[in-house]
């Protein structure tokens, strides 16, 4: 008998898809299959996520290269590219869409949540314009590392299920290895998805999309007297909370265009994103953000700007009387600042070990940030070392050594200790609580860069593996990985990051 090789797992039902987005009207997407690649190889499968998703892990591990390259479309998938528009750096582009991404479908995870599984870089779609629909290895590894680190930090974010190299080059400023990233998201509905239909005057589709998003992400608002307004308010609240969380860990998204803001409240589209080292509110990494539109401290305001664009699409659904509808929208937007501030201050209090609340806390927090800024202190390390100062003044030296100029932080520590005298709890409880919110490990830029260079130039994925590993437990001291907590040496510092395009 002739040996017949097993066919790629096209028939595997390892996924048990249930594709609700594909059941929406046809103007929401274009059906398109991934374009097969030459020689895919599985870099990494996120087994624990695969298990949470209820996937057949052994099968997808065995066939991972074929499945996650798009060579073999699993049974039950309904591959499609989603339509969306967006404001890019303030300029409206009426048609963007998934130009280098294909949604395979949705699964219901073990906790009953519906999750999208999407390939990023699987070839052209009707929305590719002049792009090749492909992704280079570097941005794929960056998204893998950073999105998983965000999750481990406890910040809502899309997840990394797998990464493969395609065995084919992609042509950017130089020739780079091609790769495909598999992303898992609560959904891929963006502010720009609403803008796509609003820009075409298609209010029926805006409403259908809102109904879909409500069902999927905000079912509670259906009981509200004004469900669409309640939906909008809920999106506002989630975004305000999300951006506050970014600031707590020094995260800079980099491209907060309206097409890169998810309605679900997850961090999405990790392009030229980065965590800052030395604290600087004006910090920008992205090479394309020349005017600092998306700088660290500008993110809260940009969040509100983007939500205003969302409000513009939804406003006719708020009330039949236009003037009333606009007033309702403005009131909802007006709440954003206070919601953000509340989340931000609450998180900052916890970072400096305060369980109680006092009037002067904002000034105290600002005092530390100002001292850090003036003295170029490393953001992550300063807060981590502060955890030790909560138990022992002997630890002050290690903290102070991070400040180029110690006077400000020394007098701040004295103020802080006076404030702590009025706090409940023991010093040990305080330091434990502080260590649970002040990470030791973030995916520092220079580490990401080193991992990308090793993978791209030498096909060496050991630095990538190590970085994913260490940042999966960001709040635990890991003696083996101590150097990963360190800021870059001057010659290691990364000043710019680039988009995946
Ligand atoms: P992004 O910068 O990832 O937010 O992408 C902005 C838009 O450009 C989206 O519509 C993407 O689908 C599209 N795009 C980015 N890179 C590519 C590519 N290599 N091929 C096709 N479309 C792309
Ligand atoms: Mg995008």
Automatic annotation (TrEMBL):
Residues 479-501 are annotated as: Disordered. Its cofactor is Mg(2+); Mn(2+). ATP binds at residues 97, 99-100, 120, 132-133, 183, 190, 269. The keyword Nucleotide-binding applies. It catalyses: L-tyrosyl-[protein] + ATP = O-(5'-adenylyl)-L-tyrosyl-[protein] + diphosphate; L-seryl-[protein] + ATP = 3-O-(5'-adenylyl)-L-seryl-[protein] + diphosphate; L-threonyl-[protein] + ATP = 3-O-(5'-adenylyl)-L-threonyl-[protein] + diphosphate; L-seryl-[protein] + UTP = O-(5'-uridylyl)-L-seryl-[protein] + diphosphate. Keywords: ATP-binding, Magnesium, Manganese, Metal-binding, Nucleotide-binding, Nucleotidyltransferase, Transferase. InterPro entries: SelO (IPR003846). Mg(2+) binds at residues 260, 269. The active site is at residue 259. Its EC number is 2.7.7.-, 2.7.7.108. GO terms for molecular function: AMPylase activity; ATP binding; magnesium ion binding; manganese ion binding. NCBIfam families: PRK00029.1 (NF000658). Nucleotidyltransferase involved in the post-translational modification of proteins. It can catalyze the addition of adenosine monophosphate (AMP) or uridine monophosphate (UMP) to a protein, resulting in modifications known as AMPylation and UMPylation. HAMAP family: SelO. Belongs to the SELO family. This is Protein nucleotidyltransferase YdiU. The gene is ydiU.
């Amino acid at each position: 008998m002739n040996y017949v090789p097993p066919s790629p797992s096209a028939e595997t039902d390892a996924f048990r898809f249930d594709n609700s987005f594909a059941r929406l009207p046809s103007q929401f997407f274009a059906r398109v299959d991934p374009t097969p690649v030459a020689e895919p190889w599985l870099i990494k499968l996120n087994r624990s996520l695969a298990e949470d998703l209820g996937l057949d892990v052994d099968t997808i591990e065995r066939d991972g290269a074929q499945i996650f390259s798009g060579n073999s479309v699993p049974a039950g998938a309904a591959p499609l590219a989603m339509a969306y528009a967006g404001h890019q750096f303030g300029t409206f582009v009426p048609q963007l869409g998934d130009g280098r991404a294909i949604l395979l479908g949705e699964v219901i995870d073990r906790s009953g949540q519906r999750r999208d599984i999407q390939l990023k870089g699987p070839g052209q779609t009707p929305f590719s314009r002049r792009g090749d629909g492909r992704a280079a290895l570097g941005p794929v590894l960056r998204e893998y590392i950073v999105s998983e680190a965000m999750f481990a930090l406890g910040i809502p974010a899309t997840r990394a299920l797998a990464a493969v190299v395609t065995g084919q080059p992609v042509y950017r400023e130089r020739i780079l290895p091609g790769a495909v990233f598999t992303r898992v998201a609560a959904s891929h509905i963006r502010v720009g998805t609403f803008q796509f239909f609003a820009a075409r005057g298609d209010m029926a589709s805006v409403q259908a999309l809102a109904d879909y998003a409500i069902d999927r992400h905000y079912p509670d608002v259906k009981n509200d007297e004004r469900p669409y307004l309640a939906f909008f308010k809920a999106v506002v609240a989630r975004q305000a909370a999300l951006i506050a969380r970014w600031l707590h860990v020094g995260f800079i998204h980099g491209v907060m265009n309206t097409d890169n803001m998810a309605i679900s409240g997850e961090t999405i589209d990790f392009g030229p994103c980065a965590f800052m080292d030395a604290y600087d509110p004006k910090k920008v990494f992205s090479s394309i953000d020349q005017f600092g539109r998306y700088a660290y401290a500008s993110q809260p305001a940009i969040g509100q700007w983007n939500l205003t664009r969302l409000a513009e699409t939804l406003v006719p659904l708020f009330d039949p009387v236009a003037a009333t509808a606009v007033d309702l929208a403005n009131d909802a937007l007006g709440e954003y600042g206070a919601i953000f501030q509340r989340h931000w201050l609450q998180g900052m209090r916890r970072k400096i070990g305060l369980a109680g609340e006092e009037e002067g806390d904002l000034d105290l927090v600002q005092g530390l940030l100002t001292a850090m800024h003036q003295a170029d202190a490393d953001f992550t390390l300063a807060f981590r070392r502060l955890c030790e100062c909560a138990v022992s003044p002997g630890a002050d030296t290690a903290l102070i050594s991070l400040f180029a100029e110690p006077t400000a932080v020394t007098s701040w520590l004295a103020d802080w200790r006076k404030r702590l005298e009025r706090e409940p709890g023991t010093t040990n409880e305080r330091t434990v609580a502080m260590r649970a919110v002040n990470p030791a490990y973030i995916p520092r830029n220079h580490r990401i860069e080193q991992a990308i260079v090793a993978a791209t130039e030498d096909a060496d994925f050991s630095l990538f593996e190590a970085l994913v590993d260490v940042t999966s437990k960001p709040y635990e001291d890991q003696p083996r990985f101590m150097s990963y907590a360190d800021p870059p040496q001057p010659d290691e510092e990364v000043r710019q990051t680039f988009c995946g395009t």
